[in-house]
């Protein structure tokens, strides 16, 4: 059975190339690791690049897209499976409950919401998978500082810092995947 990697990322295409290339590369490398990708189902922005990278390497990729976003995010027709759900909460629940590992590439409000919900679910014991924040181009620096401030100010316990792991790039995220998910075939080219 393939391990499932849930990936949160932006649907925006109006971003620097480094983010789009990182998403494509992550899709390629996870496909080569013989894991299934679960993502938001879009074919634009980082979402589209992630899916295209996985497809280019023969990967298995499942998109979960709310019906009202299907036309906005242009559901990807080239992926293995595109599931339409009734809303964002259902999408999030499916993506989190399906994951053997959760990764986050840069994104906007939706991505921040998804990361925070995953951290909260993990804190509450609803999920128990690793959460990896891929800090491409130092994008998440201020977000990580905010999480640390919540710990420093007593809004989160000191041990909550272990709920997530921050890596600097796609290669580090894939190494983490290889080292922390059993039975993963790892073949970076």
Q: Which structural traits does this protein have?
A:
189 residues; alpha/beta; 7 helices; 7 strands; disordered C terminus
Strand content: 15-25%
Overall geometry: globular
Quaternary form: single chain
Return Rg in Å. Answer: 15 Å
- The overall strand count is 7
List the helices and strands in order: EHEHEHEHEHEHEH
Number of helices: 7
Q: Which strand order do you get reading across the main beta sheet? A: 4-3-2-1-5-6-7
The span between the termini is: 23 Å
Mean pLDDT: 93
Per-chain topology:
Blueprint: E1 4-8, H1 17-32, E2 36-39, H2 45-56, E3 60-66, H3 67-70, E4 81-85, H4 88-98, E5 101-104, H5 109-123, E6 131-134, H6 141-152, E7 165-167, H7 170-180
Helix pairs in contact: 1-2, 1-7
Summarize the structure.
The protein has 189 residues and is an alpha/beta fold. The protein has helices at 17-32, 45-56, 67-70, 88-98, 109-123, 141-152, 170-180; strands spanning 4-8, 36-39, 60-66, 81-85, 101-104, 131-134, 165-167.
